[in-house]
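User: Run a structure prediction on this.
Assistant: Running it now.
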Amino acid sequence: MTSLNHPILTQSFAIIDQEIGDHTLSDKEYAIVRRIIHSTADFEFKQLLEFSPGAIAVAMTALQQGIPIITDVNMVKQGILTLVAKTFRNSVMAAVEQVEQAEEGKTRTETGLLKCWQQHPQAIYVIGNAPTALLALCDCMKTSPVLPSLVIGAPVGFIAVLEAKAALANSPVHQIRVKGRKGGSTVAAAIVNALLVLAWEAIATDA
């Protein structure tokens, strides 16, 4: 099976491997962290990712099964489309694109996410920008008999970011979460892309 990694990416990974230092990450966790570091040049992410038990395995299976991927903003969507097309061709929707305007008292992204939730509660949800969307998702999960396959919580910034990540941490859903204020669309896309590669390579190994 052809490698999904560009030669420059492979070279960058080799440099990261040399500089990463000691860590306690599993091989699959490290694959995700390494891709984030490649995207950000920020080695602090080695300490910032939290994985709920079994989250990576569940995510890989969901991707292999073609579960839809819901992103909060278009930048995250655009960041994963190339690898999605090369692997499992999951449908990808950006919440912010699902509505033309916000409901009163809500952001447009939050409004769009609620619409996506009504259609695909079992999807993989990827939040890289909008803490309001993550808070809305956590509220939905409180009373739902169906939970997302995975939630990636990586909003960035200063307003409601810590609150949104705390709400996710207290949710029973499988999750990958960036602690603190850091995150962003690039980070969220890197997590999804790493999971896609892991899921694709697992099929090659089993073949």
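The radius of gyration is 16 Å.
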